[in-house]
Amino acid sequence: MSIVVSDYKNICQLLEEEERIIVFGAGTFGKKLLAEIEQICGNLDKVVAIVDNEASKQGDLINGLEICAVDKIRNIYKKCIIIIAMKAYESVLRQVDNMPQFNGWKCCVYHIMNEGWCYSTVEELKYHKRINEKVITQYAMNIQHMNEREKVQLLDHKRQELRAGKHIIAKMVFIATNRCTLKCEGCLGRVPYFNDPKDIDINIILRDIDLFLQCIDECIAIEIAGGEPLLYPHLDVLLDYLIKSEKVLGVRLTTNGTVVPNETTLGYMAHEKVKVGISDYGMLDRLAQVVYSFEKHGVNFVFHSNMTWTDPGDLSKRNRSKEELKEQFENCWDAFNCKTIVNGRLFACARYARLYMQDIHNFEKDSISLLEYENLEERRNAIFDLYMVDYANSCDYCNFGTKDCKTIPAGLQMSTSFYRSAYTLVKRKVDA
Ligand code: SF4
Ligand code: SF4
Q1: Could you tell me the residue ranges of all domains in the chain?
Q2: Who's near 29: CB < 8 A, 6+ residues apart?
Q3: What is the fold of 4-120?
Q4: Ligand that comes closest to the CA of residue 392
Q5: Which of the following CATH numbers is that of domain 167-409: 3.40.50.2000, 3.20.20.70, 1.10.340.30, 2.30.30.40?
Q6: Is the CB of 187 under 6 A from ligand 1?
Q7: Is the Cα torsion angle 359, 361, 367, 372 positive or negative in sign?
Q8: Ligand 1 atom 8 nearest Cα
Q9: Are strands 21-24 and 47-51 parallel, antiparallel or unpaired?
Q10: Whose CA is nearest to atom 2 of ligand 1?
Q11: 352 C-beta closer than 6 A to ligand 2
Q12: pLDDT per position as a tens digit, 57-112
C-alpha cells in the first residue's frame, strides 16, 4: 500500500487545502468534477493533469487540458492529490496504490466524497464498497414505488444511519428447499443434480434467521430461495415470521412460475414487504395460472421474460493466480449481494452454498458456522469479516466476475417433460 486515502468531507475543503490536483477519469464523473472545480475556483489552475486508462480518450482535450495515460504523469509531477472520478473506482485505486511512484501521494474518490462519506484508509473504502453501497442499492429497490422527494429523504436517512455505525446488511439469502419442478441446464446451484433434494426444517431456518438478526440492526432484504421456493410447505410460517420482524425491511422471492401457492401463502405474499419475481422459462400454461393467482390476491410481482443467464461454467479448477481471484471476487455481483445461510452456516455466495450441500466443495475459509459464536459481537464480526475477505477459493471453480463468462438462454430444460412455449405473457397498456 502506498497511497494515503484522504478523508476530505467535501470538494470545497479539498480545494482549500490542495494546490495540485490530478483528475483520474475523463468520463461523465470526471467532467462533472472539473465543472465543479471551475465553478468553485473560477478556473482550473489547480488541475495539473487529467488521466484515463482508455487509450481512445488519451490525447483528447478537456478545457484545454490533455487527457493522458497514467504512465505519462507519474514521473512528471511532484506530490499531488489524485481524485478518482469514476463509478467503478476500485481497480484504479488498486492500480495507483500498487505504483511505487505514487508512494505517499494522497487519493480520494469523488462520488464517495460528494455523497458525504469520508474515509482515511483503503480498507475503509473497501468496507464502503462492499457494505454501505450495497445497502443503499437494495434500499433504493425497496422504496422504488415512492415519489422522488420521499426517496431522496429516505436514502439520505439511511446514509446517516450507516455513518452513525448502524450494522446493516443489504441482503441475505436463506435456502428453504432444494426441490424444484424444473431441471434447468444452466442452474447456478446445480439443483437438478441433488441426489436427494429435501426441504430444510422450518425450525432450523427460523433458528438461523434469529442467529443472523440477533447480531445486526437491520437487513434491507431477505431472500427465500430454492430450488423452487413456492414448493416449500412452510412458506406461510416463514413469511409470517419475516413480515413481523422489525429488523427485516423487505422479503424477496423468485419463482420459476410453475407452482400456484395455497390461499394462506398467497395472503402472506400479498404483504407490502414482500416482492416476488416470476421467471418466464416458457411454461406458458402454468405461468398464466400463477400470474392470475398473484393478481387476484394482490401480490406485488414483476415478470421477467426473454432473460439470459451468465453461465458460471463447469466445476473444473481454473488455476487462477491470487491476484486474478481477488479481481474476480471484487467483480462478482453475487459475492456481496448473495451471501447465503443454510443449516447454521453462512456462505460466501449462493453458488458455493449449494455446491457445499452437494459435497462438491468444502473450503474452510469460504463459510463460517454461526452456531460457533455465542457472543453476539463475535458472531457479528465473523459475519462482516466474511464480506471483507480478499477472495473465495470456490471462485477458482467458477467463471462469474471474469471475462470467461458466457451468456446462455435462461431456463433451457434438460428434459422434455416441460413444453417450452415460444410465446409469453404481456401486460396490457390499457385496462380493457
Ligand atoms: S428453476 Fe431452474 S434455475 Fe431455478 S432452481 Fe430450478 S432448476 Fe435451478
Ligand atoms: S464462486 Fe466466486 S465468482 Fe462464483 S458466484 Fe461465488 S463469489 Fe462469485
Answers
A1: 4-120, 167-409
A2: 85, 86, 87, 110, 111
A3: Rossmann fold (3.40.50)
A4: 2
A5: 3.20.20.70
A6: yes
A7: positive
A8: 187
A9: parallel
A10: 184
A11: yes
A12: 999 999 888 999 998 876 677 789 999 999 888 889 888 888 888 888 999 999 89
Minimum-distance ligand 1 atom for the alpha carbon of 192: 7
User: What digits encode the pLDDT tens for the residues 38-60?
Assistant: 999 999 999 999 999 999 999 99
3-state DSSP helix/strand/coil percent for the chain, to nearest 5?
A: 40, 20, 40
Look up cell 469523488; give the residue.
110
Q: Are 151 and 330 in contact (CB under 8 A)?
A: no
Please give the full DSSP string across 332-379, using - where no structure is assigned.
Answer: -HHHHH--EEETTEEESSHHHHHHHHTTS---GGGEEEGGG--SHHHH
Reported confidence tier of residue 127, pLDDT bands at 50, 70, 90: very high
What is the model's pTM? Answer: 0.89
Among the listed residues 87, 74, 89, the one whose alpha carbon sits nearest the alpha carbon of residue 22: 74
Sole residue written with cell 469520508: 118
Model pLDDT, residue 74: 66
Beta pairing partners, 277:
254, 302
CB 21, CB 46: distance < 8 Å? yes
